[in-house]
């Protein structure tokens, strides 16, 4: 078995703490020369963080391709793949619907936007959204090489599934060629270990970059919104997923969260579900005992359509902006927010702050001021880090549930 670097989680936490301390020192201590601050910000934090993110992104497409192909090509029954697909998509959409509903309820009760007096500042630039039509069409690539180069995850997943099915059906004609993909998958998992062994340095740079540029002042304007959003995120990640795991798997939830620490820290540092895929796959397979036939499908798909944390933000932000604008949303409109959040989550890119794209769609639907996104964006960077941790935890929870239902969960590995 491929071994994880010793004390990796502890070292990542130390890197995070050190990055926060040094970044805050440069941001708040005025006697530090500007030239020194710029050197740390650009040539240490920004460069180091970007290199680490690029290394992670470098692994995503080949890892997803080889893990999916090797998993599907070794299936003894194609019916199993259909069951895994239905259960995965059903669970992801259900948890997203519950997440945004929970956010809307809490926002309506505690009213984060009530009495808001600050002027709404327009953002410098709004991201362009992707419609349902484009999202569905994008699943079927006209050029798979181009799709891989552009990190179009759903297209890569679709092609990998087709390739895996074809390989499965022709194994007897190709002298068991699928075994080559299994060996390549092992090689790429080892490459993941090599890259994440430098995670403490990467996390140090990423956290330092964030703090040295933004500090903590951005939380003052929308304090109640920030606090309520964090509370709902924590409720969802620790309560909702615990209930689902207990209900469908009977697994020890404490063990689950302990083993997910490293993944959550990675997700927090990178703010990208896609960049965290290599670490999530490694943890789900090696530590949680999920068979690769399940994990190789559930995790990449989850990075694209499982946006529980993003849905929570969208619900709370919609309520916040409506309240600060003096607009009362009806029950029917709340239901529409839930539906929109679930549908648009499928087209949300698994990259930092991509949830803002779908928030624009929701605000436009109800005639809410788009200028208010300036406030949301001001506090979104740190919240996005937390949301991403929620998303990847949900991916792992669904992987455990689906694997258990298919008798593809090694509970002895999980309980180690």
UniProtKB/TrEMBL annotation:
Report one GO cellular component.
membrane
Q: Where found?
A: Membrane
Topology with respect to the bilayer = Multi-pass membrane protein
Is the keyword Lyase assigned to this protein?
no
What are the recorded GO MF terms, alphabetically?
A: symporter activity
Segments crossing the lipid bilayer: 12-29, 41-68, 89-110, 149-167, 187-210, 222-243, 334-351, 357-379
Cite the InterPro entries for this sequence: DAACS, Na-dicarboxylate_symporter, Na:dicarbo_symporter_sf
Looking up Pfam families in the UniProt record yields: SDF
Per the record, the major location class is: membrane
Q: Which domain of life is it from?
A: Bacteria
Keyword tags:
Membrane, Transmembrane, Transmembrane helix, Transport
The protein here is known as Dicarboxylate/amino acid:cation symporter
User: Species name for this entry?
Assistant: SAR86 cluster bacterium
């Amino acid at each position: 078995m491929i071994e994880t670097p010793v004390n990796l989680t502890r070292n990542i936490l130390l890197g995070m703490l050190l990055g926060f301390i040094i970044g805050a020192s440069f941001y708040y201590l005025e006697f530090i020369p500007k030239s020194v601050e710029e050197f740390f910000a650009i040539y240490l934090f920004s460069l180091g963080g970007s290199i680490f993110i690029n290394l992670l992104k470098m692994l995503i497409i080949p890892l997803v391709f080889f893990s999916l192909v090797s998993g599907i090509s070794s299936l003894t029954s194609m019916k199993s793949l259909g069951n895994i697909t239905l259960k995965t998509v059903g669970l992801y959409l259900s948890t997203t619907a519950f997440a945004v509903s929970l956010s809307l309820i809490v926002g309506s009760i505690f009213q984060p936007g009530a009495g808001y007096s600050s002027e709404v500042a327009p953002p410098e630039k709004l991201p362009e959204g992707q419609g349902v039509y484009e999202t569905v069409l994008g699943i079927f690539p006209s050029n798979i090489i181009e799709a891989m180069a552009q990190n179009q995850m759903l297209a890569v997943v679709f092609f990998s599934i087709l390739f895996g099915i074809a390989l499965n059906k022709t194994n007897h004609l190709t002298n068991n060629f699928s075994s080559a993909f299994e060996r390549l998958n092992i090689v790429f998992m080892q490459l993941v270990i090599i890259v994440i062994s430098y995670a403490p340095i990467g996390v140090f740079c990423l956290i330092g970059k964030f703090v040295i540029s933004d500090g903590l002042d951005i939380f003052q304007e929308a304090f109640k919104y920030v606090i309520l959003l964090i509370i709902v995120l924590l409720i969802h990640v620790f309560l909702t997923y615990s209930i689902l795991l207990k209900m469908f798997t009977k697994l020890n939830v404490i063990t689950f969260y302990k083993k997910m620490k490293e993944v959550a820290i990675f997700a927090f540092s990178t703010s990208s579900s896609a960049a965290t895929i290599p670490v999530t796959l490694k943890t789900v397979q090696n530590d949680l005992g999920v068979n690769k036939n399940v994990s190789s499908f559930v995790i990449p798909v989850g990075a694209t359509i499982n946006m529980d944390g993003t849905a929570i933000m969208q619900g709370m932000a919609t309520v916040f902006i409506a309240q600060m604008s003096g607009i009362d949303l009806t029950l029917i409109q709340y239901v529409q927010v839930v539906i929109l959040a679930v549908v648009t989550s499928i087209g949300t890119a698994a990259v930092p702050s991509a949830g803002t794209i779908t928030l624009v769609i929701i605000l436009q639907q109800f005639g809410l001021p788009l200028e208010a996104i300036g406030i949301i964006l001001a506090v979104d960077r740190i919240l996005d880090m937390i949301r991403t941790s929620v998303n990847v935890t949900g991916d792992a929870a669904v992987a455990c549930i689906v694997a258990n239902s298919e008798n593809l969960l090694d509970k002895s590995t999980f309980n180690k």
